[in-house]
Design a protein that fits this description.
Blueprint lengths: L2 E2 L1 H9 L5 E5 L4 E6 L6 H9 L4 E3 L7 E6 L6 H6 L2 E6 L8 E7 L5 E5 L4 E6 L4 E5 L5 H18 L3 E10 L4 E6 L6 H10 L3 E5 L2 E7 L2 E6 L5 E3 H5 L2 H6 L4 H4 L9 E3 L2 H8 L7 E11 L8 E2 L2 H8 L5 E2 L5 H4 L16 H7 L3 E7 L27 E6 L6 H14 L4 E3 L4 H13 L11 H14 L3 H12 L4 E4 L8 H7 L3 E6 L2 H11 L10 H7 L4 E4 L4 H16 L9
Parallel strand pairs: 3-5, 5-10, 12-18, 18-21, 22-24, 22-25, 23-24, 25-26
Antiparallel strand pairs: 1-4, 2-3, 2-4, 6-7, 7-8, 8-9, 9-10, 11-12, 11-13, 11-14, 11-20, 14-15, 15-18, 16-17, 19-21
Length: 574
Amino acid sequence: MPFRSALQVFNALIQGSYMGYLLSNGVFRLSLQVEADPAGLVPRLMAFFTPYLMVDNSDAPADLTVCLHAPQAFETPWKTRCQIPHLIRETYAVGFTLKVWRGDLPNGESLAWDPEKQVGYRYRMSTRKVDFYGAEDAFIHLIELVRYYGLLVESAKGSAVLHSSAVVSRSHKAVTAFAGVKGAGKTTTMLEYVLAGEHDYYSGDKLLLDVQDGRVRARGWPDYPHIGLGSLRQHPCLIEEFPELAGLINDPACADRHKVLIAPERFAQVFGRAPTGSSWLDEVVLPEVMQSAERSRQSLSTVEILALIDGDSVFEWPAQFTTSTWHGIPPARTDIPCALSDALREALSRVRWTYSPGRSSTSTHDNQATTVCSMSFSQSTRGGAIRLSIVAPSGSGKSTAANYLYEYFTHLGLKVQVLKLAAPLYRLQARFYSEACTALSPGAQDQKLLEQVAGQLRFINPFALVKAFAQELEKTEADVVINDDLRDDQTDWPYLRENGFKVIKIVTDPLSRQRRLESRKDISVIHNSALDFQIERIHADFTLANDSTPDAFRHQIQELANHLMSSLPAGLQA
């Protein structure tokens, strides 16, 4: 057999004979070479990718070659050439924000250096070989390089990436996927299936799909487990399994939605490792965990399935991930699709898709009282029969849309209030300019300052902005509440969604957006913010185009408002 187990690799390491191996899942192939590994990154890497990548003794060419070196081998002259800052990923999980400084060598090689974690990259795009320099603090850099480039290669070779967790039947023949937007309850539902004893863990966050013999083949992909405290709290046996998390789990000030990192090794100890190989996709479950109703199951029609898979809520496209593309190394096949193949689309339409709303069947804390100030953000039941959040990059027309909606609903005699998630940022911006003895024009934005301040606030408390918003929402007596500055999909969007906000996404052509940004005369402008990638992941309930005339845009707003009015209680309808 061409594939060998990770245990054989570990034995080779122990015997000192390890020089390099080809690791593969049959689609993506990684050549791992070692010049020096002072921190033991190789066995950790092998454990992380087992069983998704196995040792392959075939002569197949590698899609990516990574050669490990000690961090001190990254030469000082190379570091001085790294002058361009680059953000690979920004997240609230400690240690997972990845930033580098980039540069080039005269011989055409590219460089990247992370001075904080002492991690260096030296690579040539044409050969797809990366010389990687790092020690203990380099592990996240290393696994994210391989993990996300592997997804890019999979996509280039025709695989689709389903944003889902998954379990497999004990016979290892049928996979059930749990797909949907952030906060829907994918992990909670997956844990229910595993703990019930009839399924094994299969994949944590992404599922690779392709077509084999007319059926949908499903393969897992490794991730660094992030589990919400709410998911753990619903399963007493898990609280016992993770005593190191007891402090957080039992702290009422920690919200259910707060996610904790669990070391992959610990996760595997509790839930076991996924089986080797692939299985057939049997069902896709779309959970929507809520405390207000019993769990139910509703089968989707073929029309509903096709509408879902053609939308933007369940599939991910690695070519759009900064983590997959920041280095600029192209896969051997550079034509990377951002849509399903016809064959896969047709095969998926024959798979069972089930919508499953309702509370967790094993919930043990349905009646626990929570408050806004405790950061558990209990659902606000005060004003706002209509709750809307407008999302789009700067310059797309969010404020214009909010103004049109305000005028329309006010004209009908409804009380309307616009609440901004960024209200604390504007107050802090004013304070900054006051302390700097510099005038600040009304409505002017220093976008660079605002993003930096937001980052610092979230570093101190990831829930800072949404907590302030929740306090204002609790006080409102308006019939219509409009938010026009949603940009974050990690914390803010899940809260708004849980509290009944419908998302309006505005799309516009780049030239129109550019002109609007220039006409605003802001103090500083970020034309391509990292937050724009988060906006792309936010699922819209309604989409409006703002690339024509103001009258045309206003007409779309009025049609949407009419539709929303039809859903109001009779006492509020005009």
